Amino acid sequence: MKITFNPDHYVIDNLHIPKLHEHMYCIFDLEGTGILPDRESITQFGAMEYKHGEVGHSTFSTLSRTSKPIPDAVAELTGISNADMKTAPAFVEAYHSFSTFIGEKILVTHAGYEYDLPMLKRHCEQFGVKMFRNKVLDTKAMFTYIHPEVCEVISTDYLIRHYNIDTEGIRRHDALADYDVIARILDHLLQEYEERGLDHFTADPTRSIRRFEIPEMYSITEDGGNT
Q: What value does the mean pLDDT take over residues 195-223?
């Protein structure tokens, strides 16, 4: 798979997944010390096996010791603190456990093409481990391809509203909870693909996907300049 980034959108190529409704997928989500994938550190891996129409799938979760402090605002949002990091496994150990769980399954993420994958690739390069080669589906791309009329950024909250998904009682921005939300979104997407007579996903480099918008607070560097 190839991802080509532009300032406000990206396109994907070289990805084809046939028989969408027949696979055992592995939904995954990462938490980090912030929203910028080129500089943040992973704090948590979460993953869940998923097959359309089935329930009771296996799940996985582990913290990952960061290489930088977790800001107070992020700790409050995710529920993961610097104190948790003292006993968390090192990245290599956490990643090995994650890789064992996902095996060779097709992975599913939300906004992972622009956040989780770049951040994870950078960590693998930094720590000298091989990045997995699994195929990866992103629910943003899946939705964008069948709804070209939608011009908004396809956020998790947007899809929750669009599909009227009940998230009451779910703690958001926790990898364990977020993969459950992604699973509910994927369930609706697969149902919609089926209703449209679509049994595959094929990357189309002529279709662009809007990138998430970086909050203004992240556009200022520590020395006061713009990023």
A: 79
The DSSP letter of residue 223 is T
Tell me the CATH number at 26.
Answer: 3.30.420.10
SS3 of the chain: helix, strand, coil, percent, to 5: 35, 20, 45
Domain hosting residue 197, numbered range: 2-219
**How many residues does this entry show for the chain?**
227
The dihedrals phi and psi of 53, each to the nearest 5 degrees, come to 90, -5
Rg of the chain over Cα atoms, rounded to whole angstroms, equals: 17
Sign for the CA dihedral angle at 202, 212, 157, 169 comes to: positive
**pLDDT reading at 170 higher than 90:** no
Residue 121 has pLDDT above 50, yes or no: yes
Query: Which of 51, 57, 55, 58 minimizes the C-alpha distance to 186?
Result: 51
The number of beta carbons lying within 10 Å of the beta carbon of residue 60 is: 19
User: Rounded to two decimals, what is the model's pTM?
Assistant: 0.90
Residue 225 within any structural domain of the chain: no
